[in-house]
Design goal:
Bound molecules: copper (II) ion
Distance between the termini: 38 Å
Protein name: Copper oxidase
CATH superfamily of the largest domain: Cupredoxins -  blue copper proteins
Number of helices: 8
Strand content: 25-35%
GO molecular function, one term: copper ion binding
CATH topology of the largest domain: Immunoglobulin-like
Largest sheet: 7 strands, mixed
Organism: Silvibacterium bohemicum
Helix content: 10-25%
Keywords: Copper, Metal-binding, Oxidoreductase
Radius of gyration: 23 Å
Pfam family, one: Cu-oxidase_3
Order of helices and strands: HEEEEEEEEHEEEEEEEEEEEEHHHHEHH
C-alpha cells in the first residue's frame, strides 16, 4: 500500500488536473449559486455529477439566469490523454444545470465555436422558439453570436441539453439539466448522482475525435474513462439515486454489481411506483435517461459499468492493435492519410485502390485487412510501448504480469484480456484521490471505459473518507473541472 503522506502529496499535486470534486452531502454551494437556494428543508437534495461542475446562476427578479458558453475544450479523459472536444463552459460534457419545478429560467447562450450552433432543451415542454432547433424554431447562432433562451419549467425529472447539430453532439456537446420536483420524491435519497455517457473515436496520437466513425475506442462517464472516473461514495444504509443520460451512437446496458435496483424514472419523468422495475442492468438508449434507486445496504466497492465488452476498455479498436505496443502506432503530427497508411503498413489507406470504408474501423479500409499481431507478451516490449506511464514497477505488479501460461502463445484465441496487460495498465497513483482510498493496489489496471465504482462504506470508513476530503485545499475543491478550459464561472 502506498503510504498516506505520498497520497496527500499526490492529491495536492494532482488537484489542479483533477476533475470534479463531487459536491457530496454537506458540501456547500454558495448561496448565490446554489440550485437549492431558497428551498424549504426536506426538499430534494442537489445532485452530484462526478467530475463535472454545476453551472452557477444569478437571480434577476424572479428569474434564474445562467450563462452557457459553447466552446472548444481540452478534456483530459485519462491522465495525460487530453483530447480536443467541443463542450460548454470549459468541459465536455458541459456543466450540470439544476433548477426547481416551476422556475422561470433564462439561459444566455454565447457561441464561441467557429461555426453556427444552438442549444436544444431535450424533452422540455417549452415554446418552439425556445426549442433550439436551428433553421426551424430559431436562426442558428453565428460564431461570436448570442441567443437568449427564456422559459418557465413545469416539468420535473432528469433532462439534458445538447447542440442540435449532429456532429457537434459527437464532439461532446451535452450537459445534464435536472428539474427538482416541487414535492421531493419518496422515499427520500441521501445522495443523488448524474452520469452522462459519451463515446469518441480517436486515432492513435491524434487529439480530435473522428465524428463519422462508428467504432469507439474511448468510452466515458462524465468525460472520464475509467480508472479516471471518480467513484460514487455512499454511506452504508443510505438510499441512493443515480441518473444515467446517454447521447451517442450506441445504447449502453448499464449494470450495477451487488444490488438489485429499481428503475424509478426515465427521460420522460418520474415513474409512478407501480411502474418501477427491479433490475440489475438498465439499457440506456440513445437520447434517453434512466433513473435508478437502491438501498445501499451491502458494503463494498461495487462496479457500475456498461456491459458491452468493448465499452469496458480503453484505446480499444480493431485494426489498431499495435497502438499500445512497441510505439509503432501512428506518429504524432502526421496527417490523416499518412496516419492510416501507417496503420495498414503498406501505403496510403485513402488512395483509390485501397479506399477505406469511411465511417468504420477508424477509417481503415475493410478491403485491406491487415494482421496486427500483438507481439510477444514481454514486459520489456510492453514498457517500451507505454513510455511515460506510471506503471508502479516497484510494487510487484511486474510479477503479476508474468502470470500467463508457459505455452500461452500456442493456445488458439490467446491473447484476450492478457493483451490488455492489466497490471501494466495500472495507474493507481495517477488517479489517486479521496474517492479511491483503500482500493487494492493495482485496481486501476483492471478497469476501463464506461466504468465507475459505487463505494458503499461502513460509517467509520465513510467518515474517514470525509476526513480525507476535508484535507483537500479549498482551492482544489473549486478547481473542479480542471480541464485547462476557461470556465468563467
Ligand atoms: Cu456501452
Amino acid at each position: 500500500m502506498s503510504n498516506r503522506r505520498s497520497f496527500l502529496q499526490s492529491t495536492l499535486a494532482f488537484g489542479a488536473g483533477l476533475a470534479a470534486v463531487p459536491k457530496l452531502f454537506g458540501a456547500e454551494y454558495s448561496n448565490k449559486t446554489s440550485p437549492m437556494a431558497g428551498m424549504k428543508p426536506g426538499a430534494s437534495i442537489s445532485v452530484n455529477t462526478p467530475d463535472v461542475r454545476n453551472l452557477p446562476f444569478k437571480m434577476d427578479g424572479g428569474v434564474k439566469v445562467f450563462n452557457l458558453v459553447a466552446e472548444p475544450v481540452k478534456q483530459e479523459i485519462l491522465p495525460g490523454k487530453i483530447i480536443d472536444l467541443w463542450g460548454y463552459n470549459g468541459s465536455a460534457p458541459g456543466p450540470t444545470i439544476q433548477v426547481n419545478q416551476g422556475d422561470r429560467v433564462r439561459i444566455v447562450f454565447d457561441n464561441h465555436l467557429p461555426e453556427p450552433s444552438s442549444v436544444h432543451w431535450h424533452g422540455f415542454e417549452i415554446p418552439e422558439a425556445m426549442d433550439g432547433v436551428p433553421g426551424i424554431g430559431q436562426k442558428p447562432v453565428a460564431p461570436g453570436g448570442r441567443f437568449v433562451y427564456e422559459f418557465t419549467l413545469h416539468q420535473e425529472g432528469t433532462y439534458f441539453y445538447h447542440s442540435h447539430m449532429a456532429m457537434q453532439e459527437m464532439l461532446g456537446m451535452l450537459g445534464a439539466f435536472i428539474m427538482h420536483p416541487k414535492q421531493a420524491y419518496t422515499p427520500a435519497v441521501a445522495s443523488d448522482h448524474v452520469i452522462l455517457l459519451q463515446e469518441y473515436a480517436v486515432l492513435p496520437n491524434n487529439t480530435v475525435p473522428n465524428t463519422m466513425n462508428m467504432e469507439y475506442n474511448w468510452l466515458t462517464f462524465n468525460g472520464k474513462a475509467s480508472p479516471a472516473t471518480t467513484p460514487i461514495m455512499v454511506r452504508q444504509g443510505d438510499r441512493v439515486r443515480i441518473r444515467l443520460i446517454n447521447l451517442g451512437m450506441d445504447h449502453h446496458p448499464i449494470h450495477l454489481h451487488g444490488f438489485t435496483f429499481w428503475i424509478t424514472g426515465n427521460e420522460g419523468a418520474r415513474l409512478p411506483e407501480a411502474q418501477w422495475m427491479r433490475r440489475n442492468t438498465v439499457l440506456v438508449g440513445v437520447a434517453q435517461a434512466q433513473d435508478i434507486e437502491f438501498d445501499a445496504i451491502y458494503p463494498g466497492s461495487w462496479m457500475l459499468h456498461c456491459h458491452l465488452p468493448h465499452h469496458m476498455m480503453n484505446q480499444m479498436s480493431s485494426n489498431v492493435g499495435k497502438m499500445t505496443r512497441l510505439g509503432s502506432g501512428m506518429n504524432a503530427g502526421e496527417d490523416m492519410e499518412s496516419g492510416m497508411g501507417m496503420l495498414t503498413n503498406s501505403g496510403n489507406a485513402t488512395s483509390e485502390d485501397r479506399g477505406p470504408s469511411m465511417g468504420r474501423g477508424l477509417g481503415v479500409g475493410s478491403t485491406a485487412e491487415n494482421e496486427t499481431p500483438n507481439g510477444p507478451l514481454s514486459p520489456a516490449n510492453a514498457m517500451r510501448g507505454m513510455a511515460g506511464m506510471d506503471m508502479n514497477m516497484s510494487s510487484g505488479q511486474m510479477t503479476d504480469m508474468l502470470d500467463i501460461a508457459r505455452d500461452a502463445n500456442k493456445i488458439p484465441g490467446f491473447p484476450q484480456d492478457a493483451y490488455m496487460e492489466s497490471p501494466m495498465m495500472a495507474m493507481d497513483k495517477m488517479v489517486e484521490k479521496p474517492e479511491t482510498f483503500g482500493l487494492p493496489e493495482g485496481w486501476s489496471g483492471y478497469v476501463g471505459g464506461m466504468m465507475t465504482l459505487v463505494r458503499v462504506l461502513p460509517p467509520d470508513q465513510y467518515d474517514k473518507y470525509l476526513e480525507l476530503k476535508k484535507r483537500q485545499s479549498p482551492n482544489n475543491m473549486d478547481n473542479m473541472s480542471g480541464m485547462g478550459g476557461n470556465h468563467g464561472a
